[in-house]
Design a protein that fits this description.
single chain, 368 residues, mainly beta, four-stranded antiparallel β-sheet
Length: 368
């Protein structure tokens, strides 16, 4: 490669040539040789393409049975699915000086992971933000290991971070109090289910029913209403919603398209009995501006049969795509709001077939 005529071109000319390529092709070119990798990871080139639209990918969390083994082997990576190309990818994480990596969330090109320090003798966890495309990372202020075991990590579009549990919440923006977490009482009636952080609010489902019958309610909290001691949660409800929460079994929340749509997914109850069977999986969409629900999708019956036979399934993704996994299925079901339903094959490393994941908007941007 050293004798190639392309080496005689000035870097600015090469940057202009490669900047005309789509992001996927740029990533492929980076793996051609060391020269291309150096050229296409330089700060000057990254700044040129920093405004390029991201790749909308799905990142999978490690299988549960890996968590208590030495996950961060000599070649740690994150398993990623590209729905537009229908292919699986691996992003190497060997640039992170941590072990037992557990990816948990993503926003604006960054992936957030829990990790143990290589030199640490105890089990304390660090929350790390990284960009696997530029191989940069930042360690957030230290937290106790209990937060990694019991807390849900939420990140919004401007990388404000919240770690939420039933009893307390931690909030980090890097602006309110420099390099410090703010701690609040959660003040929720029960353990928050599938919380979502979007725009300036946090949304979560809480079961306010009895021990023998669930009754789900939607709660929200504005980030601007955070006080010194607690978070001000309010129950979102309208008379017009009727029995919207009674027809869904084991509902989950996901972020919808943009910052004004919220998705609720669950089994569609066939009756209102105490423990009813479900006829399919339903996706409902809430407009946060008008507070009106609409049906966004309904899993086809032939696809639902695979989930009907499973005792447990997971829902993840968000935006205009939602993914479903179930035990012993070996593949994912995907709902695309534009193209409908289809199967996703090729999931590897998940013995029981039960996957968990999150949306990863891959971008070649430098971390601040």
């Amino acid at each position: 490669m050293e004798s190639s005529p392309i080496n005689r071109l000035p870097p600015d000319s090469l940057h202009q040539i490669f900047s005309s390529l789509p992001l996927r092709q740029i990533m492929i070119c980076r793996s051609v040789c060391k020269f291309f990798n150096y050229l296409l990871t330089s700060q000057s080139f990254t700044e040129i393409i920093s405004t390029r639209p991201p790749l909308n990918l799905l990142a999978l969390r490690p299988p549960h049975h890996h968590r208590h083994r030495h996950v961060a082997s000599s070649h740690p990576y994150i398993h990623v699915y590209d729905p537009d190309e229908n292919q699986w990818l691996r992003f190497n994480l060997d640039f992170l000086p941590f072990r037992s990596l557990q990816p948990v969330a993503s926003s604006s090109g960054l992936i957030y992971l829990w990790g143990d320090s290589v030199n640490s003798v105890d089990s304390s966890k660090s929350l790390v933000a990284c960009n696997p495309l530029t191989r940069q990372f930042k360690v957030l202020p230290q937290l106790g290991s209990a937060w990694s075991r019991h807390g849900t990590v939420l990140v919004d579009s401007v990388n404000r971070v919240m770690v939420l549990t039933e009893l307390a919440a931690l909030y980090y923006s890097g602006a309110v109090v420099a390099n410090q977490w703010l701690k609040f009482s959660s003040n929720l009636p029960s353990k928050p289910r599938s919380p979502v952080l979007m725009s300036t609010s946090v949304f979560a489902l809480c079961d306010v029913g009895s021990p023998w019958r669930s009754q789900w309610k939607l709660f929200s909290c504005k980030l601007t209403s955070l006080t010194v001691t607690h978070t001000n949660w309010t129950c979102l409800e309208k008379h017009e919603w009727g029995d919207i929460f009674d027809i869904i079994k084991r509902p989950r929340l996901l972020r919808g398209e943009g910052e004004s749509k919220l998705l609720m997914i669950g089994g569609l109850k066939s009756t209102f009995s105490l423990n009813p069977a479900c006829s399919t999986i339903l996706i409902l969409r809430l407009c946060l501006e008008s507070l009106e629900w609409e049906e966004a999708g309904r899993m086809p019956l032939d696809m639902y049969r695979g989930f009907q036979e499973s005792s447990k399934f997971k829902v993840f993704g968000g935006g205009d795509r939602v993914y479903f996994s179930a035990k012993r299925m070996g593949k994912l079901a995907m709902w695309d709001c534009w193209e409908g339903w289809r199967w996703v094959d090729g999931v590897s490393g998940y013995g029981d077939g039960l996957c968990r994941g999150f949306v990863f908007e891959a971008k070649l941007t430098l971390m601040q």
